[in-house]
Write a structure and sequence with these properties.
Helix content is 41%, strand content 10%. It is mainly alpha-helical. A three-stranded antiparallel β-sheet has the order 1-2-3. The longest helix has 18 residues, at 42-59. The termini are close together.
Length: 141
């Protein structure tokens, strides 16, 4: 099974950003050029990097100054937290395939049942708790 770890926007490191940068075609007009292994929505990745290209043009002397440091500087001033998009329902399905617990999403709330024989043992968990479980169970092999 191949699943990239899910990260929150604020948890991206400088190296994560540079890895993402190297997966896309900077300045491309085609959304498919922004598909990536981080499970980020290509439209929001395109928006982020369109802003980065403008930042390079206006603040750094042009696209020739594309660098890990300039990318991180742009990331630190980028305030649209919608950049981070992933398909939690798909990841929950994969998580259910590798754990004894049953997880599901209902009306934007996240649930876990620890004993599938006894559906009375159900807890509501936060999105961050769910993502931490996904990160612990679904890793790259």
């Amino acid at each position: 099974m191949f699943v990239m770890k899910v990260k929150f926007f604020e948890d991206f490191t400088k190296n994560d950003l540079w890895a993402l940068r190297n997966e896309i075609s900077l300045g491309s007009l085609f959304v498919y050029d922004y598909e990536n292994s981080f499970n980020l929505d290509p439209h929001t990745v395109s928006d982020f990097f369109d802003g980065y290209v403008d930042y390079l043009d206006n603040e750094c002397g042009g696209i020739d100054n594309d660098s890990i440091d300039n990318l991180f500087d742009w990331f630190c001033c980028y305030d649209d937290l919608s950049f981070m998009r992933y398909d939690l329902e798909e990841l929950v399905d994969e998580l259910n395939g590798v754990t004894e617990e049953q997880h599901w999403i209902e009306d934007g709330r996240y649930f876990v049942c620890y004993d599938t024989d006894n559906m009375d043992n159900i807890d509501e968990i936060s999105e961050k708790e769910l993502i931490n479980k996904i990160n612990r169970k679904l890793v790259d092999y």
